Amino acid sequence: MPATEQAAAEVFDEIDFTYFIEGNFDATAYELQKMLGDEFELDEIERERFKLKRQLQVVSKKVTALITKNSAAFAKQVQQYAIVQEEAGKMVELISGIREGLSKSQSECRTALSIVANDRKRKMLRQLKSTLFKLKTLYETEFRLKELIQEGDFPGAIQLCVEAKNAARVYENYSCIRDLTANLCRTLESMESHIDDALAGLTVVFDINRYSLVYSAYLMLDKVE
């Protein structure tokens, strides 16, 4: 073993560069290959063996020194790797929890949206049912008007006609209701002629109750002076 660092450096520098080239280098085969010449001396072999031994000692010392020098840093890196691995595991657990919560939230959101959609549909159906019922009632108004006129209940007919006209304004976007409104206007305009006919009939057969209805109808039409 060289006594000084300088001597050790000189021994290291004498190492054949071939040892540093190949990763799977076979040192024994290489050294034996050098002895395949026709002549070789035992003294020369001994010197070569001694040189290789010194080189091995120098290399071993350098490797030991490097391991000792870097062992603390290596241990620290291993510790940091363990910390990173632990944190990565916690992160994976956190992400899994977030994904599970997100999946649950999405499911609850879909359920809530489905409930809202169904409730909205029910409200729309109730509104549609109510609208259809009112349209049906308005449509049947014409038949009821004819009955009231035939019965001589002109005040009732006038009141029904006015109320139906006012109610029909809400549904004027429907063509059938626009037609109904036009018919109601014509009926109301012709109402006076029906009342006049009824009054003329009272001159033949007088009936106080029928006369009361005729008079009330004239009042409603503002035809009484």
UniProtKB/TrEMBL annotation:
Keywords: Coiled coil, Protein transport, Transport. Pfam families: Vps54_N (PF10475). Residues 13-224 form the Vacuolar protein sorting-associated protein 54 N-terminal domain. One of its GO terms (molecular function) is SNARE binding. One of its GO terms (biological process) is protein transport. InterPro entries: VPS50, VPS54_N. GO terms for cellular component: cytosol; EARP complex. PANTHER family: SYNDETIN. This is Vacuolar protein sorting-associated protein 54 N-terminal domain-containing protein.
